[in-house]
Amino acid sequence: MASGTIFNIQRYSIHDGPGIRTTVFLKGCPLSCWWCHNPESQKYGVQLVLWKERCIGCGGCNSVCPEGAISGGGFPPVIDSEKCSGCGLCAEECPAVALEMVGKTVSSDYVMKEIEKDLIFYDQSGGGVTFSGGEPLMQPEFLAELLEKCKARDIHTAVDTCGYANWEVLSGIAGLTDLFLYDIKHMDDLVHTRTVGVSNRIILENLGKLARVHSNILIRFPLVPGINDDRANIEKTAQFISGVGIREVNILPYHNTGMDKYARLGRNYRLTDTREPSKELTDKACEIFSEYGINVKIGG
Ligand code: SF4
Ligand code: SF4
Question: How far is the CA of 265 from the centre of ligand 2 (A)?
C-alpha cells in the first residue's frame, strides 16, 4: 500500500470543484509563488511551525533538540530550519503549544477512510474528492493509488495542479481523474521564473498535451495586482487557453490571509504592500477572458 505526506484533509469544501467535496492537501511543491497562502505546503515532509505569541520562554525546546537546531535563549526561540530533522521532540516538550508539527505521513487507506465519511454528501451534491497541495503530482504513486481507490468506489475526483511535472506522471493519472484544476500564473517566462521560482515552459507544454487527451480541464488564474494583472498578460493567457481548446477559467483574486504563516515558518512575505484586486480590475480581467469565448467565474 502506498503512503504519502499530507498536511490537511478538509471536509465540506465548496471551492475546489463541483458540489460538496473533501480536499486532501498533499505536502511538497516545486514552486514557491510569492502569493502562496499555504507556505507550509511547499516543503516535502513534516515541518516545525512556531507560534511566537504563545511562547512563554521556558527554554525547554532548546534543551531537548538533538540536532542543536534551536537557539536564542528561549523567548522566542530561533529555529534553524536547515538543521531541524522534524523529529517533533520540541513540540512534545513545549508546555505552551507554541510549537506545532505540520504534516504527517499516512497510508492511502487512512485517507480513504476520511474520504468515505462524506459519501452521502458527494452523492447528494454532485461532489467528490479534490487532491490539492502543495503539488499532488510530487507524490505520484500515492496520488495514483488514491485515485484508483476513489474510482473503484465511484467517487468523483479532481486534481488541483500547477502542471510542473513530468508528462509521464501527468498522463499516467489523466485516465483516473475526472476533473483537472490547472493553474496558470503568468505567460512571461522571466516574470514567472522570478515570482514563482520555475520556468513556465513545462507547465504550458503539459497543458497543451493534457488538453489533447482530457476533456475536463478548468483553468485557475490567480489575479495578483502588480504581478500578472496587466492587459497584455491576461490577453496572452486567454489566447493560449482558448488556443488549446479550453473554455473555462476561474479567477482567484489575490488575498493575504496566509501572510502570518510566513512569520511562523521563519520566512519573509514578499507582498506585504499588495492589496486585493479592486472590483474594476477583476471585472476587467473577466471581460478580457470573455472576449476570447471563455466562460469566467470569480473564485474557486
Ligand atoms: S523538530 Fe526535532 S530537530 Fe527540529 S527543532 Fe524540534 S527537536 Fe530540534
Ligand atoms: S518550549 Fe515552547 S514555550 Fe518553551 S521556549 Fe520553546 S517554544 Fe517557548
Answer: 15
Q: Are residues 260 and 112 in the same domain?
A: yes
Amino acid letter at 225?
Answer: P
37 and 13 housed in the same domain: yes
Whats the size of the chain, residue-wise?
300
Q: Is the CB of 58 under 6 A from ligand 2?
A: yes
* 136 and 156 assigned to the same domain: yes
User: What number of CA atoms fall less than 13 Å from residue 91's CA on the CB side?
Assistant: 15
Amino acid at the residue 280: E
Q: What is the pLDDT along the chain (300 residues), one digit of tens a residue?
A: 999 999 999 999 999 999 999 999 999 999 999 999 999 999 998 989 999 899 999 999 999 999 999 997 667 899 888 899 889 999 999 999 999 999 999 999 999 999 999 999 999 999 999 999 999 999 999 999 999 999 999 999 999 999 999 999 999 999 999 999 999 999 999 999 999 999 999 999 999 999 999 999 999 999 999 999 999 999 999 999 999 999 999 999 999 989 999 988 888 999 999 999 999 999 999 999 999 999 999 987
- Ligand 1 in contact with 123 (CB < 6 A)? no
Q: Does pTM surpass 0.85?
A: yes
Q: Which 8-state DSSP code applies to residue 76? A: S
Residue 230, C-beta contacts closer than 8 angstroms, at least 6 positions apart: none
- Residues 84 and 98 reside in one and the same domain: yes
Residues of the domain holding 91: 47-102
Taking a C-beta distance cutoff of 8 angstroms, is the pair 263, 242 a contact?
Answer: no
The reply to whether ligand 2 has any atom less than 6 angstroms from the CB of 252 is no
Measured from the CB, is residue 99 less than 6 Å from ligand 2?
Answer: yes
Regarding the beta carbon of 93 and ligand 2, being less than 6 Å apart is answered: yes
Tally of structural domains, the chain = 2
Last residue of a domain, one of 74, 102, 130: 102
- Shortest-distance ligand to the CA of residue 59: 2
Distance 240 CA to ligand 1 centre (A): 46
Say yes or no: CB of residue 19 within 6 Å of ligand 2.
no
**Strands, E assignment, 135-208:** 156-161, 179-183
